[in-house]
Protein backbone atom coordinates (compact mmCIF):
# COMPACT_ATOMS: atom_id res chain seq x y z
CA UNK A 1 0.00 0.00 0.00
CA UNK A 2 1.25 3.49 -0.81
CA UNK A 3 0.85 5.90 2.09
CA UNK A 4 0.32 9.57 1.32
CA UNK A 5 2.30 11.70 3.76
CA UNK A 6 1.55 15.39 4.26
CA UNK A 7 3.42 17.40 6.89
CA UNK A 8 1.98 20.81 7.65
CA UNK A 9 3.92 23.81 8.82
CA UNK A 10 3.31 24.75 12.44
CA UNK A 11 0.12 26.79 12.91
CA UNK A 12 -0.79 26.44 9.21
CA UNK A 13 -3.82 24.32 8.37
CA UNK A 14 -3.78 22.76 4.89
CA UNK A 15 -7.51 22.49 4.26
CA UNK A 16 -7.11 20.49 1.03
CA UNK A 17 -4.98 17.81 2.70
CA UNK A 18 -7.32 17.57 5.66
CA UNK A 19 -10.25 17.12 3.29
CA UNK A 20 -8.32 14.35 1.48
CA UNK A 21 -7.65 12.63 4.79
CA UNK A 22 -11.28 13.06 5.84
CA UNK A 23 -12.38 11.34 2.64
CA UNK A 24 -10.09 8.43 3.52
CA UNK A 25 -11.90 8.19 6.87
CA UNK A 26 -15.33 8.36 5.22
CA UNK A 27 -14.28 5.66 2.72
CA UNK A 28 -13.25 3.26 5.48
CA UNK A 29 -9.49 3.88 5.43
CA UNK A 30 -6.94 4.68 8.14
CA UNK A 31 -5.30 8.05 8.85
CA UNK A 32 -2.54 8.88 11.32
CA UNK A 33 -2.97 12.41 12.68
CA UNK A 34 -1.63 14.66 15.43
CA UNK A 35 -3.32 15.36 18.73
CA UNK A 36 -2.10 17.28 21.75
CA UNK A 37 -1.50 14.02 23.63
CA UNK A 38 0.14 11.65 21.11
CA UNK A 39 -0.41 10.93 17.41
CA UNK A 40 -3.52 8.85 16.73
CA UNK A 41 -4.37 6.14 14.20
CA UNK A 42 -7.90 6.93 13.13
CA UNK A 43 -10.82 5.25 11.41
CA UNK A 44 -14.57 5.79 11.23
CA UNK A 45 -15.66 4.70 14.71
CA UNK A 46 -19.08 3.65 13.39
CA UNK A 47 -17.83 1.32 10.64
CA UNK A 48 -16.88 -2.19 11.78
CA UNK A 49 -14.52 -3.08 8.94
CA UNK A 50 -12.62 0.18 9.30
CA UNK A 51 -12.19 -0.37 13.03
CA UNK A 52 -11.05 -3.95 12.44
CA UNK A 53 -8.23 -2.57 10.34
CA UNK A 54 -6.96 -0.52 13.27
CA UNK A 55 -6.52 -3.69 15.32
CA UNK A 56 -4.95 -5.48 12.37
CA UNK A 57 -2.42 -2.76 11.48
CA UNK A 58 -1.40 -2.12 15.09
CA UNK A 59 -1.38 -5.76 16.15
CA UNK A 60 -3.65 -4.64 18.98
CA UNK A 61 -5.60 -7.22 21.03
CA UNK A 62 -9.29 -7.00 20.18
CA UNK A 63 -10.35 -6.94 23.83
CA UNK A 64 -8.61 -3.57 24.20
CA UNK A 65 -11.33 -0.94 23.59
CA UNK A 66 -10.79 2.16 21.48
CA UNK A 67 -11.50 5.79 22.29
CA UNK A 68 -13.74 7.75 19.95
CA UNK A 69 -12.74 11.33 19.16
CA UNK A 70 -15.36 14.01 18.57
CA UNK A 71 -15.22 17.63 17.45
CA UNK A 72 -17.94 19.12 19.66
CA UNK A 73 -19.97 18.55 22.81
CA UNK A 74 -22.91 16.91 21.03
CA UNK A 75 -22.21 13.29 21.93
CA UNK A 76 -25.76 12.20 22.80
CA UNK A 77 -26.10 9.88 19.79
CA UNK A 78 -23.03 7.88 20.86
CA UNK A 79 -23.83 7.49 24.57
CA UNK A 80 -26.96 6.61 26.51
CA UNK A 81 -26.55 9.18 29.24
CA UNK A 82 -24.21 11.91 30.43
CA UNK A 83 -24.06 12.09 34.23
CA UNK A 84 -23.78 15.49 35.86
CA UNK A 85 -20.16 14.91 36.85
CA UNK A 86 -19.30 14.10 33.23
CA UNK A 87 -20.98 17.30 32.08
CA UNK A 88 -18.90 19.27 34.56
CA UNK A 89 -15.67 17.61 33.43
CA UNK A 90 -16.54 18.29 29.78
CA UNK A 91 -17.23 21.95 30.56
CA UNK A 92 -13.96 22.33 32.47
CA UNK A 93 -11.52 20.26 30.42
CA UNK A 94 -12.87 19.80 26.87
CA UNK A 95 -11.38 20.21 24.39
CA UNK A 96 -8.36 18.65 26.02
CA UNK A 97 -6.49 15.57 27.19
CA UNK A 98 -9.24 13.70 29.04
CA UNK A 99 -11.42 10.79 27.96
CA UNK A 100 -14.77 10.08 29.62
CA UNK A 101 -16.03 6.51 29.84
CA UNK A 102 -19.82 6.50 29.41
CA UNK A 103 -22.54 3.96 28.62
CA UNK A 104 -22.51 3.60 24.84
CA UNK A 105 -25.49 3.76 22.51
CA UNK A 106 -26.28 1.07 19.96
CA UNK A 107 -24.88 3.34 17.25
CA UNK A 108 -21.33 2.50 18.33
CA UNK A 109 -20.35 -0.98 17.12
CA UNK A 110 -19.24 -3.54 19.67
CA UNK A 111 -15.85 -3.90 17.98
CA UNK A 112 -15.07 -0.25 18.79
CA UNK A 113 -15.80 -0.83 22.48
CA UNK A 114 -14.26 -4.33 22.49
CA UNK A 115 -17.67 -5.78 23.39
CA UNK A 116 -18.14 -3.55 26.43
CA UNK A 117 -21.33 -1.62 27.13
CA UNK A 118 -19.23 1.50 27.67
CA UNK A 119 -17.18 3.72 25.36
CA UNK A 120 -14.45 6.29 25.93
CA UNK A 121 -15.11 9.68 24.35
CA UNK A 122 -12.66 12.56 23.94
CA UNK A 123 -12.59 15.96 22.26
CA UNK A 124 -8.97 16.78 21.34
CA UNK A 125 -7.75 20.37 21.42
CA UNK A 126 -5.32 20.00 18.51
CA UNK A 127 -6.56 22.07 15.54
CA UNK A 128 -5.64 19.51 12.89
CA UNK A 129 -7.38 16.73 14.81
CA UNK A 130 -10.54 18.80 15.26
CA UNK A 131 -10.62 19.82 11.60
CA UNK A 132 -10.16 16.20 10.50
CA UNK A 133 -13.04 15.01 12.69
CA UNK A 134 -15.33 17.82 11.55
CA UNK A 135 -14.59 17.29 7.86
CA UNK A 136 -15.00 13.52 8.24
CA UNK A 137 -18.49 13.99 9.64
CA UNK A 138 -18.11 10.95 11.91
CA UNK A 139 -16.46 10.24 15.27
CA UNK A 140 -12.95 8.88 14.79
CA UNK A 141 -11.80 5.83 16.73
CA UNK A 142 -8.10 6.33 17.38
CA UNK A 143 -5.55 4.60 19.57
CA UNK A 144 -1.93 5.76 19.37
CA UNK A 145 -0.39 5.64 15.87
CA UNK A 146 2.25 2.99 16.51
CA UNK A 147 2.73 -0.75 16.51
CA UNK A 148 1.03 -2.07 19.65
CA UNK A 149 3.30 -2.25 22.68
CA UNK A 150 5.87 0.28 21.48
CA UNK A 151 6.27 3.81 22.91
CA UNK A 152 3.54 6.06 21.58
CA UNK A 153 4.56 8.54 18.85
CA UNK A 154 4.76 12.22 19.69
CA UNK A 155 6.46 13.20 16.40
CA UNK A 156 5.23 12.46 12.88
CA UNK A 157 8.51 10.75 12.00
CA UNK A 158 7.71 7.97 14.44
CA UNK A 159 4.33 7.39 12.76
CA UNK A 160 6.14 7.10 9.44
CA UNK A 161 8.58 4.57 10.94
CA UNK A 162 5.78 2.31 12.16
CA UNK A 163 2.98 2.83 9.64
CA UNK A 164 4.37 3.88 6.25
CA UNK A 165 3.08 1.41 3.66
CA UNK A 166 0.43 0.05 6.04
CA UNK A 167 -2.20 2.81 6.01
CA UNK A 168 -3.63 5.23 3.46
CA UNK A 169 -2.67 8.61 4.92
CA UNK A 170 -0.35 10.23 7.46
CA UNK A 171 -1.10 13.82 8.45
CA UNK A 172 1.80 15.51 10.18
CA UNK A 173 1.92 18.63 12.27
CA UNK A 174 3.92 19.86 15.22
CA UNK A 175 5.04 17.53 17.98
CA UNK A 176 2.49 16.58 20.63
CA UNK A 177 2.29 19.15 23.40
CA UNK A 178 1.36 16.80 26.25
CA UNK A 179 3.31 13.72 25.18
CA UNK A 180 1.26 11.22 27.21
CA UNK A 181 -2.10 9.68 26.32
CA UNK A 182 -5.23 11.25 27.77
CA UNK A 183 -6.48 10.78 31.29
CA UNK A 184 -9.32 8.24 31.27
CA UNK A 185 -12.14 8.86 33.77
CA UNK A 186 -14.87 6.25 34.22
CA UNK A 187 -18.08 8.20 34.77
CA UNK A 188 -20.30 5.10 34.86
CA UNK A 189 -19.39 4.53 38.52
CA UNK A 190 -19.90 6.70 41.59
CA UNK A 191 -17.53 8.13 42.58
CA UNK A 192 -15.84 8.34 39.17
CA UNK A 193 -12.60 6.39 38.81
CA UNK A 194 -9.42 7.29 36.93
CA UNK A 195 -8.50 4.30 34.76
CA UNK A 196 -5.43 5.94 33.23
CA UNK A 197 -3.64 9.00 34.65
CA UNK A 198 -2.66 11.82 32.34
CA UNK A 199 -2.22 15.58 32.06
CA UNK A 200 -5.61 16.23 33.66
CA UNK A 201 -4.45 15.19 37.10
CA UNK A 202 -6.25 13.72 40.08
CA UNK A 203 -5.80 17.05 41.88
CA UNK A 204 -7.56 18.87 39.03
CA UNK A 205 -10.39 16.36 38.91
CA UNK A 206 -11.01 16.51 42.64
CA UNK A 207 -12.02 20.14 42.22
CA UNK A 208 -14.96 18.75 40.25
CA UNK A 209 -15.72 15.83 42.61
CA UNK A 210 -13.74 15.42 45.81
CA UNK A 211 -14.08 11.63 45.87
CA UNK A 212 -12.67 10.84 42.42
CA UNK A 213 -9.93 8.23 42.85
CA UNK A 214 -7.36 6.33 40.79
CA UNK A 215 -7.88 2.60 40.21
CA UNK A 216 -5.30 1.10 42.63
CA UNK A 217 -4.22 -1.44 40.02
CA UNK A 218 -3.05 1.32 37.65
CA UNK A 219 0.22 1.89 39.51
CA UNK A 220 0.97 -1.68 40.56
CA UNK A 221 1.95 -4.88 38.78
CA UNK A 222 -1.24 -6.85 37.99
CA UNK A 223 -2.02 -9.56 40.55
CA UNK A 224 -4.91 -11.95 41.08
CA UNK A 225 -6.38 -9.67 43.74
CA UNK A 226 -5.46 -6.42 41.97
CA UNK A 227 -6.43 -6.25 38.32
CA UNK A 228 -7.00 -3.02 36.38
CA UNK A 229 -10.59 -2.06 35.61
CA UNK A 230 -9.63 -0.97 32.07
CA UNK A 231 -9.11 -4.09 29.90
CA UNK A 232 -6.23 -2.62 27.90
CA UNK A 233 -4.16 -1.82 30.98
CA UNK A 234 -3.29 -5.50 31.46
CA UNK A 235 -1.13 -5.44 28.33
CA UNK A 236 2.51 -4.45 27.97
CA UNK A 237 2.65 -0.86 26.78
CA UNK A 238 5.13 1.85 25.87
CA UNK A 239 8.04 -0.60 25.80
CA UNK A 240 11.35 0.17 24.09
CA UNK A 241 13.24 -2.66 22.40
CA UNK A 242 15.78 -2.92 25.23
CA UNK A 243 14.83 -4.03 28.77
CA UNK A 244 14.18 -1.05 31.03
CA UNK A 245 14.70 -0.88 34.80
CA UNK A 246 13.61 1.99 37.06
CA UNK A 247 15.87 2.96 39.95
CA UNK A 248 14.05 5.12 42.48
CA UNK A 249 14.58 6.61 45.91
CA UNK A 250 16.96 9.24 47.30
CA UNK A 251 18.44 10.97 44.25
CA UNK A 252 22.08 10.71 45.34
CA UNK A 253 21.65 7.00 46.06
CA UNK A 254 19.85 6.58 42.73
CA UNK A 255 22.73 8.16 40.82
CA UNK A 256 25.30 6.05 42.66
CA UNK A 257 23.36 2.83 42.03
CA UNK A 258 22.86 3.59 38.34
CA UNK A 259 26.57 4.34 37.91
CA UNK A 260 27.41 1.04 39.61
CA UNK A 261 24.96 -0.91 37.41
CA UNK A 262 26.18 0.81 34.24
CA UNK A 263 29.77 -0.17 34.99
CA UNK A 264 28.71 -3.80 35.50
CA UNK A 265 26.90 -3.80 32.14
CA UNK A 266 29.90 -2.24 30.41
CA UNK A 267 32.20 -4.81 31.96
CA UNK A 268 29.99 -7.45 30.34
CA UNK A 269 30.33 -5.74 26.95
CA UNK A 270 26.83 -4.23 26.95
CA UNK A 271 25.71 -0.74 25.97
CA UNK A 272 23.48 1.08 28.42
CA UNK A 273 21.12 4.02 28.06
CA UNK A 274 20.44 6.26 31.04
CA UNK A 275 17.23 8.30 31.31
CA UNK A 276 18.40 11.25 33.35
CA UNK A 277 17.32 14.84 33.99
CA UNK A 278 18.98 18.21 33.50
CA UNK A 279 19.93 18.20 37.16
CA UNK A 280 21.61 14.77 37.08
CA UNK A 281 22.91 14.17 33.56
CA UNK A 282 26.47 15.32 34.38
CA UNK A 283 26.60 12.87 37.30
CA UNK A 284 26.81 9.83 35.02
CA UNK A 285 30.32 8.94 33.91
CA UNK A 286 29.50 6.15 31.44
CA UNK A 287 26.68 4.97 29.21
CA UNK A 288 24.53 6.90 26.74
CA UNK A 289 22.84 9.64 28.75
CA UNK A 290 19.67 11.38 27.54
CA UNK A 291 17.88 14.01 29.60
CA UNK A 292 14.10 14.07 29.90
CA UNK A 293 14.23 17.71 30.99
CA UNK A 294 14.26 19.47 34.33
CA UNK A 295 12.80 17.93 37.47
CA UNK A 296 11.35 21.37 38.12
CA UNK A 297 9.09 20.96 35.06
CA UNK A 298 7.38 17.56 35.08
CA UNK A 299 5.11 18.65 32.21
CA UNK A 300 8.20 18.85 30.02
CA UNK A 301 9.44 15.47 31.24
CA UNK A 302 6.06 13.97 30.32
CA UNK A 303 6.28 15.58 26.87
CA UNK A 304 9.74 14.09 26.25
CA UNK A 305 9.29 10.62 27.75
CA UNK A 306 8.20 8.57 24.73
CA UNK A 307 10.59 10.29 22.32
CA UNK A 308 13.54 9.56 24.63
CA UNK A 309 12.50 5.90 24.81
CA UNK A 310 12.33 5.82 21.01
CA UNK A 311 15.75 7.49 20.81
CA UNK A 312 17.29 4.64 22.78
CA UNK A 313 15.80 2.27 20.19
CA UNK A 314 17.58 4.32 17.52
CA UNK A 315 20.87 3.94 19.38
CA UNK A 316 20.48 0.18 19.75
CA UNK A 317 21.29 0.01 23.46
CA UNK A 318 21.17 -3.34 25.26
CA UNK A 319 19.67 -2.02 28.51
CA UNK A 320 18.02 1.18 29.75
CA UNK A 321 18.12 2.51 33.31
CA UNK A 322 15.77 5.30 34.37
CA UNK A 323 15.54 7.52 37.39
CA UNK A 324 12.18 7.55 39.16
CA UNK A 325 9.90 10.52 39.80
CA UNK A 326 7.61 11.63 42.60
CA UNK A 327 4.09 10.26 42.15
CA UNK A 328 2.26 13.55 42.47
CA UNK A 329 0.37 15.58 39.87
CA UNK A 330 1.47 14.60 36.36
CA UNK A 331 4.27 12.62 38.03
CA UNK A 332 1.65 9.89 38.58
CA UNK A 333 1.14 9.62 34.80
CA UNK A 334 4.89 9.69 34.13
CA UNK A 335 5.51 6.85 36.58
CA UNK A 336 2.51 4.90 35.25
CA UNK A 337 4.02 4.93 31.75
CA UNK A 338 7.55 4.24 33.01
CA UNK A 339 6.41 1.29 35.12
CA UNK A 340 4.57 -0.27 32.20
CA UNK A 341 7.55 0.41 29.91
CA UNK A 342 9.71 -1.44 32.41
CA UNK A 343 7.26 -4.27 32.99
CA UNK A 344 7.27 -3.09 36.63
CA UNK A 345 10.99 -3.87 36.98
CA UNK A 346 11.81 -1.42 39.78
CA UNK A 347 14.75 -1.18 42.17
CA UNK A 348 14.23 0.87 45.33
CA UNK A 349 17.36 2.37 46.85
From TrEMBL:
<dbReference type="InterPro" id="IPR010923">
    <property type="entry name" value="T(6)A37_SUA5"/>
</dbReference>
<keyword id="KW-0808">Transferase</keyword>
<dbReference type="InterPro" id="IPR006070">
    <property type="entry name" value="Sua5-like_dom"/>
</dbReference>
<feature type="domain" description="YrdC-like">
    <location>
        <begin position="15"/>
        <end position="200"/>
    </location>
</feature>
<keyword id="KW-0067">ATP-binding</keyword>
<dbReference type="Pfam" id="PF01300">
    <property type="entry name" value="Sua5_yciO_yrdC"/>
</dbReference>
<keyword id="KW-0547">Nucleotide-binding</keyword>
<comment type="similarity">
    <text>Belongs to the SUA5 family.</text>
</comment>
<dbReference type="InterPro" id="IPR050156">
    <property type="entry name" value="TC-AMP_synthase_SUA5"/>
</dbReference>
<keyword id="KW-0819">tRNA processing</keyword>
<protein>
    <recommendedName>
        <fullName>Threonylcarbamoyl-AMP synthase</fullName>
        <ecNumber>2.7.7.87</ecNumber>
    </recommendedName>
</protein>
<comment type="function">
    <text>Required for the formation of a threonylcarbamoyl group on adenosine at position 37 (t(6)A37) in tRNAs that read codons beginning with adenine.</text>
</comment>
<keyword id="KW-0548">Nucleotidyltransferase</keyword>
<dbReference type="InterPro" id="IPR005145">
    <property type="entry name" value="Sua5_C"/>
</dbReference>
<keyword id="KW-0963">Cytoplasm</keyword>
<dbReference type="Pfam" id="PF03481">
    <property type="entry name" value="Sua5_C"/>
</dbReference>
Amino acid sequence: METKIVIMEENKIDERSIEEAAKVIRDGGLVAFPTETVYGLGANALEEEAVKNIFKVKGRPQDNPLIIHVADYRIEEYVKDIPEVAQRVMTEFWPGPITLVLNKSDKVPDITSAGLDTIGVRMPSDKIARELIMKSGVPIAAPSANISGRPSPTEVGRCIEDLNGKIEYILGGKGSQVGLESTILDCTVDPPCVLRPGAVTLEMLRKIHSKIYIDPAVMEKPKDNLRPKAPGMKYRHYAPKAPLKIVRGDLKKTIAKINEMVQNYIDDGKTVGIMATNETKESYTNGIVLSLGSRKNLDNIAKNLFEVLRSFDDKGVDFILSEGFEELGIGIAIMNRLKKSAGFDILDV
